[in-house]
Design a protein that fits this description.
This protein is an alpha+beta fold. It has a 4-stranded antiparallel sheet, with no helix packed on it. A 4-stranded antiparallel sheet has the order 5-6-7-8, with helices on one face. It is 20% helix and 39% strand. The longest helix is centred in the last third of the chain and has 12 residues. The protein has 3 helices and 8 strands, in the order E-E-E-E-H-H-E-E-E-E-H. A hairpin with a 2-residue loop joins strand 6 and strand 7.
Length: 127
C-alpha cells in the first residue's frame, strides 16, 4: 500500500517515497488504484466504491479471508509494517527490509528466527 496519503483525482500521477501511483475512475462509482513499477509496468493495487457499505457487507469477505483454504491469509504467513524511512515485510519465509537506502531480502530459516523478527520489528511476542 502507499506509504502516505494520495489525492483522489483521476489520472494524476503521485509520488510517495519513490513509488508512483494513480487513480482511475471505473463504472458504477468505483475507483482503482495503480502503481507504476520500476520496470515501468502498471500493476493494480486496490479498488473501492463510493457507495456506502453496511456491516453485513463485510461478513462474507471476512469469513472467506480468514477460513477458506484458497485465501492468501490462510495459505501464507504475512506481516507488514511501515516506518518513516521504509518498511519491513514477512511473506512466506522471506524477510524484506527497506530502511532509507538499505534494501535487503533474507530467507527465514527457522520458526525461532521468524519469532525474533516479529518481536524486533513488529513488537509481536509469540511462544
Amino acid at each position: 500500500m502507499p506509504a502516505g496519503s494520495l489525492l483522489l483525482e483521476e489520472g494524476l500521477s503521485q509520488e510517495v517515497r519513490g513509488n508512483v501511483y494513480r487513480f482511475e475512475r471505473r463504472p458504477f462509482h468505483r475507483w482503482n488504484l495503480y502503481r507504476e513499477t520500476s520496470a515501468k509496468t502498471v500493476e493494480p493495487m486496490l479498488g473501492f466504491a463510493e457507495t456506502p457499505s453496511e456491516p453485513v457487507d463485510f461478513v462474507v469477505p471476512n469469513y472467506y479471508n480468514s477460513t477458506h483454504p484458497d485465501s492468501l491469509f490462510v495459505r501464507s504467513r504475512i506481516a507488514n509494517i511501515r516506518f518513516d524511512d521504509g518498511f519491513a515485510s514477512i511473506t512466506n519465509g522471506q524477510f524484506h527490509l527497506v530502511r532509507g537506502a538499505e534494501d535487503t531480502t533474507t530467507p527465514i530459516e527457522s520458526r525461532e528466527q521468524e519469532f525474533a523478527l516479529l518481536r524486533e520489528y513488529y513488537g509481536v511476542v509469540l511462544k
